[in-house]
Amino acid sequence: MEPMQAKPRPLPMAADLYGDIEPSPKASWRGYMPGLLVVGAGTLAAGFISDHYGAPLTLMALLIGLALNFLSDDARLNAGLGLASRSLLRWGIVLIGVRVTFGQIAALGPVALAAIVSIVALVIAVGVLAARRLGFSDAFGVLAGGAVAICGASAALALATTLGERRINQGQLTLVLVGISAMSAAALVLYPILAHMLALSDLKAGFMLGAAIHDVAQTLGAGYAYSPGAGEIAAIVKLTRVALLAPVLAVVALFFRPDGTGAKRQGVPWFVIGFFALAGVNSLGVIPVVVAGVAEQLATAMLACAVTATAIRSPMRQLTAGGPQPLLVILAATVVALALATSGGVFLIAG
User: Fold this and answer.
1) Which residue, of 39, 71, 235, 312, is most buried by count of CB atoms within 10 Å of its CB?
2) Are 193 and 340 in contact (CB under 8 A)?
3) pLDDT recorded at residue 14
4) What's the rounded Cα separation, in Å, for the pair 20 and 164?
5) Which residues contact 202 (CB under 8 A, 6 or more apart)?
């Protein structure tokens, strides 16, 4: 008799916002606690490093999660890790809505708004073209380009969910998170220097920084490092890009239908509706400042926990086997985003 072959363990999942890729973990509160405690401890450590040394929180959460990747073999952690990488991410995206008002977006004017939409679309297109050139799938190009174009790690996590595990595996997602975090941290330092070299006004510099930098925290840091005025403009431009996450997800869902027979066609998910609903409420000015501040802190914490959990669950063999080529897709999208944002700030924005 031939020896019985062991059934391969399925890849761990992460960032499953819809809940149709991976069944929601079934466990009592005690079953969730081990995984949540590990995620919480890792995220707190990332927060400590970020607060005391000025390092990006997302990057620190990602690196600590990768350092704890060996814990993914422990089945006792699965339920808590799944909850953190899925449910916390959903609510974190909803709470991002407290950073956005429709009035802020409208105040930019039609030219700036059209430029932001065009930059987002072109950067995603460049990601797809670069992925094809380097032999990767269109889905990976959308993932990398969308993460650069919209809002970094949170966009990557949401896009990975929309694209599905059959198109984007955990190794590819983690590699994009690594590349996005590293390049966003570099942009925080280098882009304000470029703006000073070009002698841009606060308005032009704010547009450039807000339209080019990947993550929200790095965008605000670079903007206010240039000047308070540039920081305010950078915040509005960046939050306009964040608001484009929902329509981009809807468009991606139209082009990338669910795989397999009997798969349900996804509508607009509840967290996207919640994001816009909260932005609408925030636009009315009825959310107290204290409540908005708490909501922003919760959103940051939830997204950081989701990144930590995603890194812990990532199959490292796929990550290391990919080589440096996937990072070139992110780099191409990053360079184009900077070129377009700088051109828009210099030639389209009056001030």
Assistant:
1) 39
2) no
3) 39
4) 9
5) 226, 227, 229, 230, 233, 351
Q: Count how many Cα atoms sit within 13 Å of the Cα of residue 141 in the half-sphere of its side chain.
A: 20
CA distance 222 to 218: 6
Query: Measured in whole angstroms, how far is the alpha carbon of residue 75 from the centre of its chain?
Result: 27
Q: Answer yes or no: are the C-beta atoms of 40 and 80 closer than 8 Å.
A: no
Q: If we measure between CA atoms, which residue out of 285, 328, 341 comes closest to residue 145?
A: 328
Q: What is the pLDDT of residue 320?
A: 56
Per-residue pLDDT tens digits for 177-206:
888 877 887 888 899 999 999 999 998 999
pLDDT score of 272 more than 70: no
CA angle 68–56–333, rounded 5-degree value: 100
Rounded CA gap, 169 and 151, in Å?
Answer: 20
AA identity, residue 170: Q
Task: Return d(Cα 209, Cα 194) in angstroms, integer.
Answer: 10
Rounded to whole angstroms, how far apart are CA atoms 105 and 236? 7
Nearest alpha carbon to residue 244 among 146, 168, 338, 127? 146
> Residue 5: its pLDDT value, please?
41
Tokens of 188: 């925080």
Among the listed residues 81, 232, 216, the one whose alpha carbon sits nearest the alpha carbon of residue 155: 216
In sequence order, which residues have a C-beta less than 8 Å from that of residue 96 and are 6 or more positions away?
A: 151, 154, 242, 275, 299
The half-sphere exposure of 200 on its side-chain side, counting CA atoms within 13 A, is: 32
More confident residue, 154 or 259: 154
pTM above 0.70, yes or no: no
Three-class secondary structure of residue 302 per DSSP: helix
Whole-number pLDDT of residue 258? 54
